[in-house]
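In the previous chapter we treated chains in isolation. Here, by contrast, the input contains two separate entities that must be folded as one system, with a combined length of 706 residues.
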Amino acid sequence: MPEAAESRDTNNMGPSQPEAQPSAASQAGAYERLRALVAEDLEAVNGLIRSRMVSEQAPLIAELASHLIEAGGKRLRPILTLAAARLCGYEGAHHQLLAATVEFIHTATLLHDDVVDESARRRGKESANILWGNKPSVLVGDFLFSRSFQLMVETGSIRVLEILSTASAVIAEGEVLQLASVNTLADDDDIYMRVIRAKTAALFEAATQVGGVIAGVDPEAEAALAQFGAELGVAFQLVDDVLDYGGADARLGKSIGDDFREGKATLPVLLAYRKGDEPTREFWRRVIVKRKQEEGDLEHALVLLEQADALTETAARAREHIAIAKRALERFPQTPLRQALEDVSDFVVARTL
Amino acid sequence: MPEAAESRDTNNMGPSQPEAQPSAASQAGAYERLRALVAEDLEAVNGLIRSRMVSEQAPLIAELASHLIEAGGKRLRPILTLAAARLCGYEGAHHQLLAATVEFIHTATLLHDDVVDESARRRGKESANILWGNKPSVLVGDFLFSRSFQLMVETGSIRVLEILSTASAVIAEGEVLQLASVNTLADDDDIYMRVIRAKTAALFEAATQVGGVIAGVDPEAEAALAQFGAELGVAFQLVDDVLDYGGADARLGKSIGDDFREGKATLPVLLAYRKGDEPTREFWRRVIVKRKQEEGDLEHALVLLEQADALTETAARAREHIAIAKRALERFPQTPLRQALEDVSDFVVARTL
């Protein structure tokens, strides 16, 4: 955990230093540019995903899985795997198997998350647990998870299997830790950071790391790719937690205030709670810890978050993690691919603007 | 699917041919004898299971997992892995990792099954989903599943990883197929057999097969071990489906009539449905397909199963699969270990007596 980064004064990250901020124009198309650079690989990955999510035994599997997989997810994680491998000069095709693996693990966790969180929407559509029920969502998640292991086994690389099986375990640990701590208002960010490093950043980290491993890079380059993914993943989750209180519904494909209604003590809430006077703290205790919510509470929460600068501070933290992520890429050749990865990193944070 | 075995006249398997039946005495202690033959290995496996189910991040994981893992499961599947490896002359320790893997996969599927089936009891105790809720059961299942992959990766054997990751996918397919077909009264056993081969027999099959693989046996011996496990697994599930209508509550650690209440069209039900007159078929349609059950229905179902000889016929089918399983062992040296595996196979069916 980058203690230094997190304790740094966040004021010097604001718009008073415009030279540190990428232009809006470069951010807007960043994702599309990165995607274009791996377009051929990505098409192969989409083919793998479509063919491997099918079960001859149980047609329901492909029906449910495709609802989620075809619903316009950005494929950010598999694209990171493809880009990391190509950045390291890889010319084979095994990174496609790994990218599909990563997307299947991600999809499996989404299916189980939505059951656990009782979510009603995902990627702008009704979620699978609402449409088909919890039971198929649990079992199809298990299937995709197993398929992901079959895919990675096909690479024949034990090192890759170590990394991805460990990441899967860490993700589950993070989910359980979150479940045990979600309605707790802590006085520090320790558990919150552990949860997001595990439940979100671990898969980003593994996604980029295995791209390097399959390309046969040295341990230092592998570690740099892992750090890039991990810090990007932390930033991604921080921004997600900001957007839950402020993003446009259509853009995110999910409702605003989901975290609030579930009483999730995300970083914005923790920051506002800590800075608040006693009535404010009592409010947060009622809605988060006791989960006794009334009409108008979300609106009041938004006012308190604004007063405490909690959303801007969380976004500033995200930018610090992005800065670390980008530094990790400095050892790689300055190619259009590396530039696109840096721009996408900025774009992840730009989502809060 | 052994069509020949299943269409064979089952009358010649009855007590009129006592020489084909093992003595009650040899059956009773069979499991304990097999267990004793791998006692040292099993102790190491239990140590692995205890240490690997722990998560430093999330203590809830070990709490929930140990509730199930320590609840007196027989460890039949890991014992089969240990015995298969030793039967093939294996002298290393990797089979212990595989045995722990198999138990973790089994435990993960139990946790998810109980969520899907809304079961209240498991192994004579309240089930985890009742005690902790569905959410931790789903997530701890995911954790154990991931851990199982970490364990098998430690063997470094890609062939073993192929077999076990494929088995995991097949299990999930079987569960989904069951979900889609459970309340259907089919006129043949095709889907029922596909379900039990996938959801139950696939793990038995992988458990014995990887024991041979890790010992480095030739493909024919590997296939024989796989067949032994698969046929034993089919018999095990057939007997389980009989016991749901007849076993002693205490012995099974779960309630009688669970399948009935869930409207599961297991083989006994399918047999009674097919042999029944129109009022009988209408009864089965009401309780299984429409799931409209009234007081006294379970008792009436038991009478109909008895009239149709459905439980004895299902048990006879199980004995046929056991016969195939035992034949698959004939190529291996006649050691106490092989004898114990044969006796345990008989014991699996003897549970219905």
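Chain A touches chain B through 44 residues (CB under 8 Å). Chain A has one domain: 27-350. Compare these points with the single-chain example from earlier in the chapter.
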